[in-house]
Automatic annotation (TrEMBL):
This protein's UniProt keywords: ATP-binding, Cytoplasm, Glycolysis, Kinase, Nucleotide-binding, Transferase
Catalytic activity: (2R)-3-phosphoglycerate + ATP = (2R)-3-phospho-glyceroyl phosphate + ADP
Protein name per its UniProtKB record: Phosphoglycerate kinase
Quaternary structure and partners: Monomer.
Pfam families: PGK (PF00162)
List of residues binding ATP: K211, E329, G356, G357, D358, S359
Residues noted as binding substrate in the record, renumbered to the chain: D21, F22, N23, R36, H59, L60, G61, R62, R119, R160
Metabolic or biological pathway: Carbohydrate degradation; glycolysis; pyruvate from D-glyceraldehyde 3-phosphate: step 2/5
PANTHER family linked to this entry: PHOSPHOGLYCERATE KINASE, PHOSPHOGLYCERATE KINASE 1, CHLOROPLASTIC-RELATED
EC number: 2.7.2.3
UniProt-listed SUPFAM superfamilies: Phosphoglycerate kinase (SSF53748)
Entry's family note: Belongs to the phosphoglycerate kinase family.
Keyword Cytoplasm: yes
Length: 400
């Protein structure tokens, strides 16, 4: 069922509680990069321009003790938001009480307010009580009482049941998705529930164990699953191939065998690899087909595999990519990941969806991000979505 979105709401004069994802890298009060604040601007601007009073809530980092609080205040974020919006933003240095309530009462239509880090509620009087991350029912109820409607635009936390997403939504008449959330539901949800075929998934990264849920779910839905990265070699071991010193999860070899049996020719493994003598960019390396020779470890897929993967991808109508094809952080083993990213940028007829830190970094580095249909803003959330799980943060959004 389609979800209510912010553009379905009548916002004029309403107190609009908004859960955004302002969880930016921050050190000594200095913001490392403000991508997430920038990404939240369209929904914030929309609410403000339509006469809503925007009351923004977000978590920032993890708070387990009182001393964690000062370094994780939302104040620098509110200041940056004010610069980006080019208008004043009210910052309230608390998460509950009269100061917050008075500030909200004082808002005019179109104003923007940022509340202190929601995770300040995780520590009370020095005790780690997890009111926010444990979804304390009183806290969600209290925050909901501060607004008239609720807009959830924080996909990155959609796989968690916290007071600031699920807690507020379950105490609010109407909860709508913001534009970022709407796009995640449309593309990732669309790929999982109703993909246009051929549907090809590319899964990489270090471990089979991290991706097993995704492989399982997508085996039932995708036409092909292309495997790359370190997890390849657990599959190689399951097939009885030699893996040299490559990464392997010995306790997952039986599981890999089961997957291979179940998958038939749906699962495509790389046929060649870039192998090195050491886990080092400067180590002697070469490309080999099939077995990984003794004394070598496989650190990237080879050019033949890239060509084979591209051959599968070229007719795809839906592509989901999560996880690098090799040790992308080292330039000598980044080629496979970069080639796949570049190729996705040429697939103009397909819906192309990318999730996960390294695959996202690859398409950004290549400058092809804007040629793709969707770059997910949530790592853990996008993986759980691809696993076919119900994400509590999305489930709590009202149906249209
Ligand atoms: P993940 O977090 O599961 O997406 O995995 C990402 C990590 O997997 C990156 O740090 C890569 O360097 C690593 N990785 C990818 N391919 C390999 C490989 N063949 N051997 C070892 N590590 C790898």
């Amino acid at each position: 069922m389609a979800k209510l979105t912010v553009s379905d709401l009548d916002l004029k004069g309403k107190k609009v509680l908004m859960r955004v994802d302002f969880n930016v890298p921050i050190k000594d009060g200095v913001i490392g990069n403000d991508n997430r604040i920038v990404a939240a601007l369209p929904t914030i601007k929309y609410v403000s321009e339509h006469g809503g009073k925007a009351i923004l809530l977000s978590h920032l980092g993890r708070i387990k003790k009182e001393e964690d609080k000062p370094g994780l205040s939302m104040r620098p974020v509110a200041e940056r938001l004010s610069n980006l919006l080019n208008k004043p933003v009210t910052f309230v240095p608390t998460t509950e009480g009269k100061q917050l309530e008075d500030a909200i009462d004082g808002l005019s239509d179109g104003d923007v307010l940022v509340m202190e880090n929601t995770r300040y509620e995780d520590v009370k009087d020095g005790e780690y009580v997890k009111r926010e991350s444990g979804n304390d029912p009183e806290l969600g109820k209290y925050w909901a009482s501060l607004g008239d409607v609720f807009v959830n635009d924080a996909f990155g936390t959609a796989h968690r049941s916290h007071a600031s997403n699920v807690g507020i939504a379950s105490n609010m008449g109407q909860t709508a998705a913001g534009f970022l959330m709407e796009k995640e539901i449309k593309f990732i949800g669309g790929a999982v529930d109703n993909p246009e075929h051929p549907f090809v998934a590319i899964l990489g990264g270090a471990k089979v164990s991290d991706k097993i849920g995704v492989i399982d779910n997508l085996l039932a839905k995708a036409d092909k699953i292309l495997i790359g990265g370190g997890m390849t070699y657990t599959f190689y071991a399951a097939k009885g191939m030699k893996i040299g010193n490559s990464l392997v999860e010995k306790d997952k070899i039986d599981l890999a065998k089961e997957i291979l049996d179940k998958a038939g020719d749906k699962l495509v493994l790389p046929t060649d690899s870039v192998v090195a003598e050491k886990f080092d960019n400067d180590a002697a390396h070469k490309t080999v087909e099939g077995d990984i020779p003794d004394g070598y470890m496989a650190l990237d897929i080879g050019p033949k595999s890239v060509a084979e993967f591209e051959d599968v991808l070229k007719s795809a109508k839906t592509v989901v990519w999560n996880g690098p094809m090799g040790v992308f952080e080292m330039s000598n083993y980044a080629e496979g990941t970069l080639e796949i990213g570049k190729f996705l940028g040429t697939l103009t007829e397909a819906k192309t969806i990318v999730g996960g830190g390294d695959s996202t970094a690859a398409v950004q580095q290549l400058g092809v991000a804007d040629k793709l249909s969707h770059i997910s803003t949530g790592g853990g959330a996008s993986l759980e979505y691809l696993e076919g799980k119900t994400l509590p943060g999305i489930a709590a959004i009202s149906d249209k």
